[in-house]
Amino acid sequence: MLCPQVKKRRVLKSVEEILKIDIKPGWENGTKITFPGKGNKEQGAPADLVFVLGERPHAIFKRDRNDLVVIQKILLADALTGTSLNLTTSDGRDLTIQVTDIVKSGYELVVPNEGMPISKKPGKKENLRIKFDVICPSRLTTQQKCDLRRIQSDADY
């Protein structure tokens, strides 16, 4: 005698629960937040629910581990004579930075404790690194060229 096959039907039960994730300042791209036992039920036991953080690019700052990097344009005259920079930090504070060194190609100014917060050390931040882009004039007069040559011949290298 043939018996009809009986298929077991899985009944899925929808459960709604609000889970709260407190994102801590300084958490890095790829950080995993796990809610044990909050996922789908697999073979009798509920699975873990895992969220993975992703970072969105910032318009001004770039993250390098826990340092923040910013590119600052500076006029050639300011690069040679010094200047004062006004920056708004990633947390919205206004910061004034004095540049007293001569800014050369590849020069980087490090401002301690103005980078990303360190999640495992509350109250501690890494560095803000300012990389300079020196803007040179597009043209000079004959007199300006002579003045620059005179200044350059008097300079110590």
Q: Would you spell out the secondary-structure blueprint of this structure?
A:
Elements lengths: L31 E4 L5 E2 L2 E2 L2 E4 L9 E3 L2 E9 H6 L1 E6 L5 E6 L8 E4 L16 E8 L6 H13 L3
Parallel strand pairs: 6-10
Antiparallel strand pairs: 1-4, 2-3, 5-6, 7-8, 9-10
Protein name: Chaperone DnaJ C-terminal domain-containing protein
GO molecular function, one term: unfolded protein binding
Pfam families: DnaJ_C
Considering the chains and any ligands shown, give keywords for the structure:
4-stranded mixed beta sheet; mainly beta; DnaJ_subfamily_B; 157 residues; HSP40/DNAj peptide-binding domain
Account of the 3D structure:
The chain is mostly beta strands. Among the domains are: 27-56, no CATH class; 62-138, Sandwich (HSP40/DNAj peptide-binding domain), CATH 2.60.260.20. The chain is 12% helix and 31% strand. The protein contains two helices and ten strands. The strands form four sheets. Strands 5-6-10-9 form a four-stranded mixed sheet. The longest helix is centred in the C-terminal third of the chain and has 13 residues, at 142-154. The model has no long low-confidence stretch (mean pLDDT 83).
